[in-house]
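Researcher: Go.
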Amino acid sequence: MIAINQTKRKLLAGERAIGLGVSLLRGAAVPMIAKAAGLDWLFIDREHGALTEDDAAQLCIAALAYGVTPVVRVCSGSIDEATRALDTGAQGVVVPHVDTPEQAGAIAAALRFPPRGGRSWGGGAAVWGLRPPAMAQAMEEADEQLLLAVMIETTTALAHADAIASVPGVDVLLVGSSDLSISMGIAGQFGHPLMRSAYDTLAQACVRHGKALGLGGIYDEALACDYIRAGCRFIIAGHDQGLILNAATSRAALLRGA
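Model: Structure:
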């Protein structure tokens, strides 16, 4: 039986799904920590992190055992990275810098098997515990469980928000808040009215087309809560290195001041 994508299930039910960004840590303990912390998915970052393809595969396989959804961010335009991630255990893919519905449609088709798309068969057995069913059934099940998030990171993408949200096969519009703020000329000003307006525009597009809105790059507690109330449900809680550094810094300050 294929591993159920619990994050996709939550999103389809209108619930929130909260993820742990992984760009530093490796090993089977990472999804174990995420599960113990009550998180739903791993954001395995191969765009900005130093994780190799093998690192990502090992994280995905370990995550499947804990019911934590492994989601891999690939580099822009790297469909080969995305399909290999799916072949080695990923249940979701994040593609950055998607500016048009044509780009989104091409990505959605490339990551699904015929007749819904053009993904090649030749692997992917990790999500069945290495025992997939007959090929036709396996391809249908894999397509059903796939979670695809496209990142909105420019004013061009924002202008096409409604059209991108309407693309079949796209499940999440994930806001890359840092790059979007740069594109809008308000770098790092995540509480700026322009940023709030962008999130509102995207939230409305997602509601109209039955998609989930994702929150990335905003870790200030008050602002994150504002954007969650505005409609974000696919949420990156923080990245491993930042969470560890913040906790260690706080602990060191406590002990030195004791």
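Model: The first strand starts at residue 17 and ends at 22.
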